[in-house]
Amino acid sequence: MTRKVADCRKYPSEVGCTLTISGEEDEVVQAAVAHAVAVHGHEDTPQLRADLREFLEPEEALAD
Q1: Model confidence band, residue 61 (pLDDT cutoffs 50, 70, 90)
Q2: What angle do CA 37, 45, 25 make, to 5 degrees?
Q3: What order of strands is seen across the sheet that includes strand 57-58?
Q4: How many Å apart are CA 53 and CA 51, to the nearest integer?
């Protein structure tokens, strides 16, 4: 199974977040939602979860 990565550095924010989360897709989405709500003030909605899934990249992409 391909591990996925969510990297906040690719999406500049007011807090200048540098968090990177990696793991299996469902784990990363769950952690990224919790982070988006707690740190960035987003609301946990189905749309946020869908957007975060689109934001994920294969872990190998970080090596490029």
Answers
A1: low
A2: 80
A3: 20-23, 4-7, 57-58
A4: 5
Residue 62: which residues within 8 A CB-CB, separation 6 or more?
Answer: 5, 7, 20
Angle 26-28-2 from CA coordinates, rounded to 5°: 75
Residue 1 has pLDDT above 80, yes or no: no
Q: Which amino acid is at 20?
A: T
Q: What is the pLDDT of residues 31-58, one digit of tens each?
A: 999 999 999 999 999 999 999 999 999 9
Whole-prediction pTM: 0.85
Helix locations, the chain, DSSP H: 25-40, 46-55
Helix axes 46-55, 25-40, angle to 10 degrees: 120
